[in-house]
Design goal:
Helix content: over 70%
Strand content: under 5%
Number of helices: 11
Number of domains: 1
Order of helices and strands: HHHHHHEEHHHHH
Strand order of the largest sheet: 1-2
Low-confidence stretches: 154-158
């Protein structure tokens, strides 16, 4: 059991908020601009480097088990996030967001998603601590999700209009015109909501739906809420720049859904076996080293085969 003090939690949250504030300050200082490939690459390297440094620190101070669980969780969340980018592209297109404003939309949407995931993680951790049978539910759900992913192939269906966004459009006065990065503007003497606010809410609420897959998946790798939260946080924070870096590469990852289906199916089976083991059944309890190996090998094979197929 990882012993995380309140001070450590507050220091971690403060550090994450400081990093996001720095990111926002840099974006605000540059104003409305399009991310270049070079700029996006530097930011992605920065965030991945931070995650690796955090994982190594956790490995050193919390033990190799905690470090391995973080890296397994981080890789899983990051790979699921790449798949989510396909839907983000669709949302941006449906709202006709100018490219110069897209980084602001992603920044706010991801911050909202991180807040909502934090609540989801707290609820999930409480349920797992009280009821072992929750692992059966999570495991079955992940296996079902893996089956759907495997059948869907590389197709990514356009999501339906968010009910929350539709409700906002009905309740709040809105305009179809963008006014820079503003979320509110004036049309005549009337204050109205711009599409910027709607698309931010769409990104945040859509990511919450993605969390229905990713949160159970990472709980299949670790039961430590601190590791679950930090792995999610580091995976989400670099997602904005990864969106621009992979903008022209997403269509080449044709086997990504297949690879994610293998990972989710494996973790789902691991959860079911773990729950059965907790109830005294004579079944193997898969360790984190095996899990990390399966995730790394599957992602590497998926990437190589996808790039070769679309060469």
């Amino acid at each position: 059991m990882l012993d995380v003090t309140l001070t450590a939690w507050l220091a971690t949250l403060g550090g994450l908020l400081a990093i996001m504030a720095f990111d926002q300050w840099v974006a605000h200082r540059k104003g409305e601009h399009e991310f270049s490939v070079g700029e996006a690459t530097r930011w992605v390297v920065f965030y991945v480097g931070l995650a690796i440094a955090f994982g190594l620190g956790l490995w050193f101070f919390g033990g190799h088990q905690a470090g391995a669980e973080f890296f397994a969780g981080y890789l899983t969340e990051y790979s699921l996030s790449v798949d989510n980018l396909f839907v983000f592209v669709i949302i941006m297109s449906s709202f006709a967001v100018p490219r110069a404003f897209q980084h602001k939309v992603l920044l706010v949407g991801i911050a909202l998603a991180l807040l909502l995931r934090g609540i989801f993680i707290a609820v999930g951790a409480a349920a797992i601590n009280q009821f072992v049978w929750v692992f059966f539910v999570f495991g079955a759900f992940l296996v079902f999700t893996a089956w759907k992913l495997a059948r869907s192939g590389e197709e990514h269906d356009e999501p339906g209009e968010s009910k929350l966004v539709a409700l906002m459009s009905k309740v709040l006065p809105t305009t179809d015109e963008y006014d820079g990065e503003r979320v509110f503007t004036k049309v005549g003497d009337k204050r109205v909501v711009t599409p910027m606010l709607l698309v931010m809410v769409a990104i945040g609420s859509t990511d919450l739906l993605f969390a229905l897959d990713s949160i159970p998946a990472i709980f299949g790798l670790t039961k430590e809420p601190y590791i679950v939260f930090t792995a999610n946080a580091f995976a989400l924070m670099g997602l904005r720049q990864l969106y621009f870096l992979l903008d022209g590469l997403l269509d080449r990852l044709v086997y990504l859904s297949k690879g994610l289906a293998v990972i989710l199916g494996f973790i789902g089976a691991k959860l079911v076996l773990h729950a059965a083991h907790e109830y005294g059944a004579s079944v193997p309890d898969i360790g984190i080293a095996v899990s990390l190996g399966v995730i790394v090998v599957t992602l590497a094979a998926t990437t190589v085969l996808s790039l070769r197929a679309t060469r």
